Amino acid sequence: MPFSNTTFARSSLLMLLIGSAILIAIVLSSFFMAGMTQSYFQDVVKLRNVRSAAADMIASLRAAESGQRGYLLTQDEAFLTPYTSASIALPEIRDRLKATLATQGDVQVPVDELERLLEEKLQEMGGTIELGRRGDFAGAVAIVKGAYGRQVMGRIIVILNQALRDMDERLATGVEELNDSARSLQWFTIGGGLVIVLVLGGAIAIVVQHVHELQNARAEVEELNAGLEERVNERTNDLIQANREIQRYAYIVSHDLRAPLVNIMGFTSELEATLKSIGTYVLADGTQITENDVLEARQAVEQDLPEAIGFIRSSTKKMDSLINAILKISRDGRRELKPEKIDLQDLLETTAASIYHQVNEAGDEINISVGGVRSLITDRFSLEQIFGNLFDNAVKYKHPDRPLTLSVKAVQTGRSSIRIEIADNGRGIAPEDHERVFELFRRSGVQDRPGEGIGLAHVRSLVRNLGGEITVTSTLGGGATFIIRLPTDLSQYVRSHGP
Question: What pTM, to 2 d.p., does this model score?
Fold first, then answer.
């Protein structure tokens, strides 16, 4: 059934409205997800501060109590050193614990009761030590053996341990909620993208059919509009101007591919402008249509609209990859680590073998030297991911004027930590970008290599999960050295510092 101009316009506008509504919903959902992520990380920081203060309080009280009992049992002033140190630190820890508790509302702690119990415990320990210094060790020991001091200490530990458990539960709940939202947004984005493609496909079919009908009616239109040549010229000029505007928008959007949400909205505007141009052209009842006009309309339908659809699909896929990146880093944070004894030399050589074909063909060189650091206890999968990303980056960002030289060194730093340096002679990183390269979706330097700014953010997340830290020293054009500091025994680190 042939379409009238009014039916064509209504159908096209309806499909455009549907597509725009879906795109707006995707954008709003993405902004909501970003806000939720920011809020969650702020809560994490607050709860981590409370957890740290509570753990320090427990450790200081135990140290003070150990010093008190050691002194009373041995009557040796040397045993008072832990007590004295803890007594000096406790006021600052108490203030920090109160301040951190006041900044959050997720975990409820009986602060007044805790303050009262702390005061009583400190008075009990101070009183017994004073008795000992006056020579009444028997009386002081009798007080210590009494049940009251143990009950006060036990109640303090119960309150603080309960606070720690509540904080861990709240963090776990927050992570799960964040992941559920991210998964929902991912599926919503994919579904919305498919619906947009279907809607735009229908719009193209309608436009193609209408243009075909216009071609069939060309002879009749030329006869009826013989006296309207000037009006046709005006319409043609309007269409040319509209096409120029479309090309300008396409140029702007094509240079902002790193912002997929902006791309989607920009090409929605381009589609709208295209349909308006075609609508203005086809709604001109009784006008003379030349063959050149028909060819221009066909070009808009067969070239401009499909091009815009392709960019929207690409931007939707990129948005999906960004969401997947957030989910990947989130999953890495929740993945259970499996410490095992690892031969560092063997692991590095195996990882380097994965890029050997690229290095060998280009005449590049890889040197690995772990010195006396032959093994460490850590999570193998995380370590493979870390070195794999850094090695791939070294190959990707090699200097175009010289062969790549990649060297890896490992040295022991103290009894329980090592430092691993991965150095290359590639393009380097400007000093002002040394911290920026570790941020999610951030890159530095000339953007002539594929990527979305995820790799180094992923590496930093993995290193921190292993109880370490990563930094970079570099100058632009002078290569880069990534420095990783890790505990030699992840199991012992977790026992000492907690998960």
Answer: 0.41
